[in-house]
Amino acid sequence: MENVARIIITIFFIGLIALAIIFFGVFGLVPLEKIGKLGSNKNGDTVRVEYVPVEGEKNVPAEAATSTVPIVENTGPAEMPQQPETTPNIPSEVTTPSGKVVRLDVPPGSPNAPQQSVPITEGQVPVGSIRLMMREGGFVPQSFTVRKGQEVTLAVSSGDDRTHVFMFKDTRLSAIAIGVGPGETRIMKFTPPVDGTFPFFCAVPGHEGSGETGRMIVIE
C-alpha cells in the first residue's frame, strides 16, 4: 500500500513538471533574439525596434511591428551656452546724461535725432559755440575745426533776407539739419563721431551751386 502511494505521488510531480514545461514553452519566456533587434541609428537620432512575432502569432498591429525611440547619449558635462556678443554702439550714436540715445545717422527731425532750437537772439548764443553765418554766395567762415568725441554747439545764422538750411553730405551726420529764416539764429548740439573732413552745404535748391558750401574738420 505504501508503494502505491509513492508511485501516485511520483506520477503527480512528473505531471506538474510536464505542465510547467508546456506552460513556459508556449506562454512564458521567449528567447531574446525572438523579441527583436536593437541598434543605434547611424544618424544618431533614434533606435529602431523590429518586433519578431512568436511562431504562430497572428494579427500583429502594424505600429507594433516597427517603432522608434529617441536615443539619449551621455556626452559628459553640459556646456554653458555662449552668450551673444554685445553689439557696440555705432560711431553715430550717443547716449546723453538723461539716458536718451541720440543718433546722427537718422533723418532730420527723427525722435532720436538732435533737435534744433527755436530762434534765439544774439545774447542767447551759448559761450563757446561755433558761429556760422549763411548768406548768398557762401558761408562765413567756410570751415571750422572741432575734436572727435567732444560735444559741439553749432550756432547757424542767416546773414541776408533768405531762408537757408545747413546740412552735411556725409550720411553719418544726416540727422544734423538747421533751418533759419531771414535774420534768424538757431543752435544744435551734437558730438562728432569720427575724425576726418565733413563737407556741408545749404540744402535750399540752387544755394549750393551759388557757393554755399564748406567743411567741418574733426581732429583726434
Written overview of the protein:
The chain is of the alpha+beta class and 220 residues long. It has two domains: 37-71, no CATH class; 93-219, Immunoglobulin-like. It is built from three helices and 14 strands. The chain has a five-stranded mixed β-sheet with strand order 8-14-13-10-11, with no helix packed on it. The chain has a four-stranded mixed β-sheet with strand order 7-6-9-12, with no helix packed on it. Strand 10 (164-168) and strand 11 (177-180) form a beta hairpin. Residues 26-52 and 60-90 have low confidence and may be disordered.
Summary, kept brief:
With 220 residues, the protein is α+β, with helices and mostly antiparallel strands. The chain contains three helices and 14 strands.
Radius of gyration: 45 Å
CATH architect. name of the largest domain:
Sandwich
Say which CATH homologous superfamily of the largest domain is assigned.
Answer: Cupredoxins -  blue copper proteins
Category by helix and strand content: alpha+beta
Shape verdict: rod-shaped
Kindly estimate the percentage of residues that lie in beta strands according to DSSP.
Answer: 25-35%
| CATH topology value of the largest domain | Immunoglobulin-like
End-to-end CA span: 125 Å
How many strand elements? 14
Compute the number of helices.
3
Main sheet: strand order: 8-14-13-10-11
Stretches with pLDDT under 50, minimum 5 residues: 26-52, 60-90
Number of domains: 2
Q: What's the CATH C level of the largest domain?
A: Mainly Beta
Q: What is the percent of helical residues?
A: 10-25%
Element pattern in H and E? HHEEHEEEEEEEEEEEE
Q: How would you sum up the major sheet?
A: 5 strands, mixed
- Mean pLDDT level: 75
